[in-house]
Amino acid sequence: MGDYLEIANSKLLYLWGSIIVLFVLFQSILFIRLAWKEGKKLGLTSKKMLKGLRAGMVSAIIPSIPIVLTLIAMAPVLGIPFPWIRLSVIGSGPYELLAAGIGADTMGVDGLGATGYTRYVFANSVWVMTIGAMWSGTIVFFFIKRIKKGYKKIEKRDSKWMSIITNAAFFGVICVFLAQPITTGGLALTTMLSGGILMTICALLVIKAKITWLKEFALAISMIGAMGSAVLFAQII
Amino acid sequence: MIDNNTLTSQKFEKKVHRLGKATILTGIILSLLVPVLLWIIHGVFPPMKQLLLGIGTVSSFMIPLSIAEILAFYPILGSSGIYMAYTTGNIANLKLPSAAIGMEVANVKPSTKEGEVISTIAMAGSVIVSEIILVVGVILLVPISHKLNNPLLKPAFEQILPALFGALGAYYILKEWKLAIVPLTIGIIFSAFNLQTAISVPICVLCSIIAAKFLYKKGKIKA
Is the ipTM here above 0.90? Predict the structure, then answer.
């Protein structure tokens, strides 16, 4: 793969990632301190608050593992530190890959890490991923107080509608990328179908066989399994 | 007594907004500096036209998506939760469940003052743990990463996007297949004509939302 990996894995990016993680930890500690003081005023016991803290910490362990798996899958195409940074602040696995793909696509390159994925294409992916992820934070920064005031007027029905819009908007983008392998075929199509089949199997196992822990891992398992199928099909096709 | 209570909670609210705004802005600046550093230190900057096209494409769905998502999450997360969640991401799969479990274990109700305090503490705890696990993941990944560059595995990583979209697409289709009909049809037509993503993404997103509105009004889909 391309020369861009030298830049993508540079010490500078690792250093920057460490700074960002320290900052995020600092934010969490400040919020705990603020909430703790307020809890005391409200008459909550330290024991009760500690219970909440512990529950939050423990509940994060299992759902963090698929995030690490996504990071491993992204590392050979985008390097280690940048996906790490993006998954640490604002980001989430599927969005990051989607945005990286858009960055490559607008440069006329078909897929991440493919032939022609130069350092300039990588830079485009980085810009697109970063700016796309900034919108939610920017909206929160400027409009949260207004949203809070306006919220009383919004009925419950509308809150349902909002979650439908979120799904529909995301689905709209996914469909563009789903359609490409359908029309081009080949390895991309077999990989995509494998991913779909694996996800369907996972969903059946969760619903029919009641293996609920699988729910959190379904996306990571299906994606990595489909990537594995690409290795197999590449030998055949 | 009641007056005194509302006064302290107003103070708390104010402090939450001050801390939240300061940290979310810092988070945005720190992440924006990543591409800027690539540019200044490594001298790599993409061609302007392609960069703007890419930013336009990603924004065409991230702006409506972010607004709708914030409106949907706000009543569940509360102010302090919203700031923390949008600084760190991974909301639906990580932050929301942690806040909910924290409130359940501490036996406080959501959307009460006690609930907001406990959900803030629980969410902060979950942020700390997930950041630490990611760091451990990075430390473990660095020594083995060159093995992933094996030529045999090359097709796997080159096909990472189709792999993701196959899984993600199936997830959404299984959840609400009716939402898929319009955007997928349009997507296939656009792709057959080889239309650029900078054009097809915004149109597909818009049509998908309009179709969803129609289905929702007709009562064909539930949230």
Answer: no
